[in-house]
Amino acid sequence: MTAAPNAPLFHRLVDRSGPTIPFTIDGVPAVAQPGDLLMTAILLNRPALRPFEFADAHRAGFCFMAACQDCWVNLADGRRVRACTTPVENGMAVVIDGGARV
Amino acid sequence: MSDPVVAIVGAGPAGVRAAEALAQAGLRPIVFDEAQRAGGQIYRQPPPGAERPGEDLYGFEAGKAKSVHAVLSDLGERVVYRPRTLVWNVYEQRLDTLTDGGYGEQAFDRLVLATGAMDRVIPFPGWTLPGVFTLGGAQIALKAQGVSIGRRVAFVGAGPLLPLIAHQYAKAGAEVVAVLDVTPFSARARQAAGLLAQPATFAKGLYYTARNALRGGTRASGVRKLRVEGDGRVEALVWTGADGREHRVACDAVGASFGLRSESQLADLAGCRFAFDPVTRQWAPERTTAGRSSRPEVYLAGDGAGIGGADVAELQGRRAALAVLEDIGRAVDASEVARLDAALARQARFRDALEAAYPYPDHLVASIADDEILCRCEGVTAGALRDAVREKGATEVNRVKAFTRIGMGRCQGRVCGHAAAELVALERGCPVSEAGRLRGQPPVKPIPVAGGAA
Question: Is any Cβ of chain B less than 8 angstroms from the Cβ of A47?
Answer without folding.
Answer: yes
